[in-house]
Amino acid sequence: MSEPSAAREHVLRVAEELFSERGYTAVTLKDIAERLGVRQAALYYHVPQGKEQLFVEVMQRSFRRHQKGIERALAEAEPRLAVQLTAVASINAQPPLGLARLARSDLPALTSDHRADLSDLGQRALITPLERALAEAYARGETRLLDTQVTTALFLAMIDSIHEIYQAKAISREVLARDTVEMLTQGLLRR
């Protein structure tokens, strides 16, 4: 796939901001056009098939970007689960995915083919690298046997919410990431 033009890249960035803020179902092409300062008809030059095509492309890019960030964080971190998960939770260069909203309302609003494609990509981009890290931690003797898919889903939900907490509280993102991972890996009870 070739690199998008500067104008198309701008459309994709603005659409991603709006979809990230409000979700697929709450955003219209008119909203995107207004934020871009163009007429709605002009968007069809970039996305002839409309809003769903634009959302799918935005999510594909977002999932791939998140996957690269997760894989890089896992690879560069010391091979200890808490260190690796803290590195993943500390990634802050990307907008939140809004995973609960994505599962609850965005994906169900898409055609079945797009829903299946994005679900598969989300699995490969977000779940698979983290499940691999959990399996490796188990093999190293760090963790007990866990359902890696459930643990991964909980971790992703927790770090996805860090974006909201970070904006509302005067707590550094790094402290939130560390505390989230510590809670997940060590629990709440004193030892």
The low-confidence runs, each spanning 5 or more residues with pLDDT under 50, are none
Shape: elongated
Q: Give the terminus-to-terminus CA distance.
A: 53 Å
Rounded mean pLDDT score = 90
Specify the CATH class: Mainly Alpha
Largest sheet: none
Strand content: under 5%
Helix/strand-derived category reads mainly alpha
SSE succession: HHHHHHHHH
Kindly state the number of beta strands: 0
In the residues, how many domains can be counted?
A: 1
Instruction: Figure out the total of helices.
Output: 9
CATH homologous superfamily designation = Tetracycline Repressor, domain 2
Helicity range of the residues? over 70%
Can you offer a commentary on this structure?
There is one protein chain. By secondary structure, the chain is mainly α. It has one domain: Tetracycline Repressor, domain 2 (Orthogonal Bundle). 72% of the residues lie in helices and 0% in strands. It is built from nine helices and no strands. Helix 1 packs across helix 4. The longest helix has 28 residues. The protein is elongated, with a radius of gyration of 18 Å.
